[in-house]
């Protein structure tokens, strides 16, 4: 009996050990990703290779001293990738492939958690004029040693099909044939796109950039706070009426549009190369100045000039979005037009959404409190952004704004409800 229990206990123990070992082996590994940016005559590729899996395929340990990995082994890694990654066209000829740069980065996938990866940027060009929307990928990096490894093929940017790099779309997985132990070629056959699709996507991007760009929205809203008011040069003395307010809004919005359009065009064509951090700092500063002006006029009757100058700064921030797309000239021109239209449509929508309530309230003394409270909040927010962008460290205000930006529509709802209730109450009291 004792012997029976001992043998069974031993079997259970060994079973548990084996199960634990298999669980470790079965732990999901990060995927490699081939992200393709498809252009008219070439392809830019971004390879993402998890370091822990890469160490099984290269003759050195890439998980040790990752900071010195590229310094010591960049040439070896380049040779390895170029020997395990080729693209061929419809005529069966290999396309030219060059590695532009490499970097080590931290990433995270839902199933695997955080990990380090090697990112390799490549430029790929056909040797002759060919259809860059149809080609075959031959790729077996890592998977030739780790057969369970997964390689996802994604499209990061395809302007002609309206995809502009916001979210990768997966088009397939490179797999291995276990019967022959060979990695199967992966055929890419992208749908034919059009300039219209690309143009529409840029209009949508422009609208999205303003709707999600909290700093640009806040700048616009603070400008609107003082738009209905008349000044004696030292203080705001009351509403100028509907006609006066609408003309001022039109002039200020037009000046801002002209300003940001100039630098957007120049920045997109590489005529201006501004420091991104400095631009973001000045944008936060522009909100602070405008907030102070909404409390006490510091550039009375010169709002048009200020809006155009600050528009120049905001345009530089807009331009970085287009330059990152690396578009050909004809597509860049269409993109500039579409992106600018999207920006103006969203700005117009915000003005139409907010301005009626400000116009209605501006005739009452309570508007002084609305203006001052709104300007003070904008000032506090701009200071938090200045600190964040200068120190490159988030603070509790900037974190809160980032997490709650999607609920900004509630500010308009509250403003509308307050306006209706206040005016209704005033009418009842008069009766």
List key phrases describing it:
three-stranded antiparallel β-sheet; alpha+beta; 431 residues; 20% strand; six-stranded mixed β-sheet; elongated; disordered N terminus
Describe this structure in words.
Keywords: Membrane, Transmembrane, Transmembrane helix. This is HupE/UreJ family protein. The protein has 431 residues and is α+β, with helices and mostly antiparallel strands. The protein has two domains: 28-193, no CATH class; 197-430, no CATH class. Helix content is 54%, strand content 20%. The protein contains twelve helices and 13 strands. The strands form four sheets. A six-stranded mixed sheet has the order 4-5-2-1-7-8. A three-stranded antiparallel sheet has the order 3-6-11. A two-stranded antiparallel ribbon has the order 9-10. A hairpin with a 4-residue loop joins strand 1 and strand 2 (43-50). It is elongated. Mean pLDDT is 85; it is low at 1-7 and 9-26.
Secondary structure blueprint with pairings:
Blueprint: H1 2-25, E1 32-38, E2 43-50, H2 51-54, H3 69-83, E3 85-88, E4 96-109, E5 113-125, E6 134-139, E7 151-158, E8 163-174, E9 176-177, E10 182-183, E11 186-189, H4 195-212, H5 214-226, E12 229-231, E13 236-239, H6 242-268, H7 276-295, H8 303-323, H9 329-361, H10 366-391, H11 396-404, H12 409-430
Parallel strand pairs: 1-7
Antiparallel strand pairs: 1-2, 2-5, 3-6, 4-5, 6-11, 7-8, 9-10, 12-13
